[in-house]
User: What shape does this take?
Amino acid sequence: MNQPAGSGSGSGDGIHTLKALILIVVVVLIGWVVLHHTTKPHSSASSATSPTTVPTAPTTVPGGATTTTTVALIPPSSIKLQVLNGVGSGQLATEWSNKLKANPGYNTLAPADATATVPASRIYIVTPGYQREADALATTVGLTAAAIVPTAPPPASAPIPSTARTNANLVLVIGPDLAAKA
Assistant: This one.
């Protein structure tokens, strides 16, 4: 008597199992080749310019090993920088805006006056997450990290016009210390 197909007896089951096993092995091998190929560093890939990077604090992972992650800074050309004259006279905001636009290439907004005179230059972080970029700006203009006001958005008491609060990522208020370097 004939048995219905797929009844579970005969050598056909062994062949199906063998085919399934071979298929699994092939899929695993293809996956390994693809993974190996995409994680290999490409020695021929290089660029004429490299992004500015800043190492972050070392991280300790289980087992006592320490790793350090390097994250690229936002390029100056992508940072909207508002320069304000906090001295009360002269063209300091214009002079500093022109300098910083020329080198290192900040996207400077129209220079303006601060809403009050200031005793010292300050950098305000308007957009949260721009602390490292504020540090880089401080280094560029010759200020210390103490000149950075890290509160983002800046406190209401900051001498920043409302347009700068809505349009800029960072605000540099020029005080007497930078007035001498203009």
